Amino acid sequence: MSVLIYIENTDGQLKKSAFEVATYGKDIASQLGTEAIAISIGDIATEELSKLGAYGISKVLHITNSDLSTFVNQAYASIITAAAKQENASVVVLSNTFSGKGLAPRIATKLEAGLVVGATSAPTVSGASFEIKKSAFSNKAIATVVFDSPLKVISINPNSYPAKNTGGSASIENFTAPIGSNDFSTLVKDIIRATDKVSLPEAEIVVSAGRGMKGPENWTMIEELAEVLGAATACSKPVSDAGWRPHSEHVGQTGIVVSPNLYIAIGISGAIQHLAGVSSSKTIVVINKDPEAPFFKVADYGIVGDAFTIVPKLIEALKAYKG
Ligand code: FAD
């Protein structure tokens, strides 16, 4: 028996969520008294994969070829399923990222396993009972799910489980999987990176702005604040609908769900549909000129005032603080 963990990389570098999911899988393996094994797909150096040993991974399976250098949902799902079978995994763990969201249901179907998407904490294992908490109803509730299947697939939300470096080393093994043309009915030919900025779902700090900014020309100060803080930028839905910002920045019920350590909301009213995507942020700071704005009800810190006065002062103060 083992726990198999799918590890993601970007351009050959392990993603931040890779260390979180490794720690998460290792903690499950410890509860089950078994081994945590990782699978990595695509071009990545052995030295980079070795870093996973410090996060409790004992062995990393690695598979790469030219067709696998970009993410292909079907093929990746077949490979992870084959690895789970080879390693006799009772639990497969993924990060609930864009690719994890596509992979988890496919793998669960292939393995005829139970599936929990968007876990928020480690499961409680006691004898045959395997219980896990997950976010539900757009983060408005936490559901407790009891697995009733011998095989389990779990995806964990990025930023919800801290990575723990406990030392240790991992062996790296080449892996081959029986994938064929059926696994490549769609093929990603090329990926053109639109931005080098911090990825929104994984960002530890998010600077987000809404219709209160009046127009796209006023985002210069939002981007500047984000840059000073090393943050990702986000926006409310009407802002992306109006074309002020790209849809990839839209957070909320119909957009991306984020749970950063710090979420700064500027000129956003705090409608329920917006809060659905941001309420699991660890600390929320709201800047709004309306003291009755609903966002203040969920804020840890609130500043009532005009964003056009406050944000430049904040940037100035942060720059002075950083020297
Ligand atoms: P507004 O509601 O117009 O609020 C602007 C805020 O800026 C106000 O609070 C105002 O006081 C403040 N402000 C104005 N000027 C200043 C200033 N100078 N300084 C400081 N503050 C200022 N919305 C999302 O964001 N994400 C979603 O995923 C989403 N999904 C939806 C799904 C459905 C089915 C529906 C019906 C709606 C959805 N919405 C979503 C829309 C949502 O209901 C709100 O309309 C939207 O979030 C409001 O965006 P806003 O706060 O930017 O704009």
TrEMBL record:
It comes from the Bacteria. Gene3D superfamilies: HUPs, TPP-binding domain. InterPro entries: DHS-like_NAD/FAD-binding_dom (IPR029035), ETF_a/b_N (IPR014730), ETF_a/FixB (IPR001308), ETF_asu_C (IPR014731), Rossmann-like_a/b/a_fold (IPR014729). Keywords: Electron transport, Transport. The keyword Coiled coil does not apply. Residues 3-191 form the Electron transfer flavoprotein alpha/beta-subunit N-terminal domain. Belongs to the ETF alpha-subunit/FixB family. This is Electron transfer flavoprotein subunit alpha/FixB family protein.
